[in-house]
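Ops channel
N.P.: pipeline sanity check, posting one input/output pair.
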């Protein structure tokens, strides 16, 4: 699926959550979307768990 389509779907989901559920629902959907994005990147092999917890001095050059 094209990234523009995925972004459009995410934006529509956030819009519906904000309209029908209020600001709290908007924040919940945004947070769960971010968690889902990170888990998806991890499962595809694009990201390691160490990338999330590595300090600035530890980064590979």
């Amino acid at each position: 699926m094209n990234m523009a389509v995925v972004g459009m779907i995410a934006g529509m989901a956030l819009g519906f959550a904000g309209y029908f559920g209020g600001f709290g629902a908007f924040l919940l959907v945004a947070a769960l979307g971010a968690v889902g994005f990170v888990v998806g990147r991890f499962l595809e092999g694009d990201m390691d768990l160490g990338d999330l917890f590595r300090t600035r001095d530890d980064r590979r050059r």
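N.P.: looks fine end to end. The helical segments are 3-44, 49-53.
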